[in-house]
Amino acid sequence: MNKITCHIITIGDEILYGHILDTNSKWLSQKIIDLGITVSKKTSIGDNNSDINYNIKKSISNYNLTIITGGLGPTNDDITKNCLNNIFDGDLVYDEKTFNHIKKIFKERNFDFTQKNKDQALVPNNCKVLLNQFGTAPGMAFEKNENILISLPGVPFEMKSLFENGCINLIKKKFTLPFIYHRMIKTVGIGESWLSDKISNWENNLDKDLSLAYLPSIGRVKLRLTGKGDDISKLKVKVKKEEKNLVSLINKYIYGYDNDELENVVGNFLTKTNKTISVAESCTGGNISSLITSVPGSSKYFTGGIVAYSNEIKINSLGIDQDTLNKYGAVSKEVAEQMAKNIRIRFNSSIGISSTGIAGPSGGTKEKPVGTIWIAFSDKEKTISKKLILTKRRDVNIVLTTINALNLLRKNLKID
């Protein structure tokens, strides 16, 4: 089966200047790859006639599929439609369906219907019009030889709706696509390079119809096992076989699969076992509690938390011993364990977890540099702690501490 290639082009000065983040190409890449199409190139260009003309002409000659987002609005800097009209030698005509749709929107909102608004219904007469249900700028699809170009509005929710409701079927009709099957294995507590070393022999002997991608994020690494071919049943069998071999090598680091998230996995287990949890935080400033409670239904197992930033609050609200603080300091094993134990007892929960440390960028000492963190877990059977030596960046340290605290919880819940 021949490889089908795609070039994604995002248009807009605001993207080049960094005023907005280009989330469109990221989202489109995932959707296109899931269709079995190879994303060969991504390009961001400004609202400039010569740049748009050059890149589009080159793209439709070199790639099977070109997808453009942006530049379809009513203002003077939105020039994509006119450029496409010239490139494909068309004539701009009013699309009646789009015109009536735009008119209806303005009437419902009691807005003036100006000439610029009317002109958004102008489209090249040689394109397939894609009605935009959530906006006024229609999408457009052009064919040239065996290749296809699709132009979509830059507003993300409009672009996504148009792609999913119109473009996918268009692409499937145009190209003979392979079957794609993904399996996501999610790990925590091991870095990307160490993970790669552990599975190197397995990876080197991976079935030829399968591929592996490392998708790292702060504190976690996702492994995406992908099969591509003509027979979906055979692909699933191959992926399942390779997954079984992979799991045997790294099982203790795996917290979930596919759409699982660490906070959901922990929350589901707490619900099933009728256990509750409370949190005492210092350096994470409530981030652990925030992540736990981001899960719908977390009120079943989360009793509450205290952000004990100062020593005074640690003493008065958590009951941390003054002598312990004087002897070991707030950033210590002893204080972390008292925080986890005392929050559990005071909030009458099954489990208590805690964090205390120096998030940075200031506050470090030679003995306890920035990035020194202690986390702790406490239940009726035991109270344990773990020391972390993290980075110099405050934002990264907060996220890493949160992930490590939830992972400490996961391991002590004995989740299979």
Shape: elongated
Strand content: 25-35%
Biggest sheet overview: 6 strands, mixed
**What assembly state would you assign to the polypeptide chains in this entry?**
single chain
Using only C-alpha atoms, the radius of gyration works out to: 27 Å
Number of strands: 17
Q: Numbering strands along the chain, what is their spatial order in the largest sheet? A: 2-1-3-8-7-6
Query: What is the CA–CA distance across the termini?
Result: 40 Å
Mind telling me the CATH class of the largest domain?
Alpha Beta
Helix content: 40-55%
Tally the helices: 16
Number of domains: 3
Low-confidence stretches: none
Q: Can you tell me the CATH topology of the largest domain?
A: Molybdenum Cofactor Biosythetic Enzyme, Chain A
* SSE-based structural type: alpha/beta
The overall pLDDT average reads 94
Find the CATH superfamily of the largest domain: MoaB/Mog-like domain
Which CATH architecture of the largest domain?
3-Layer(aba) Sandwich
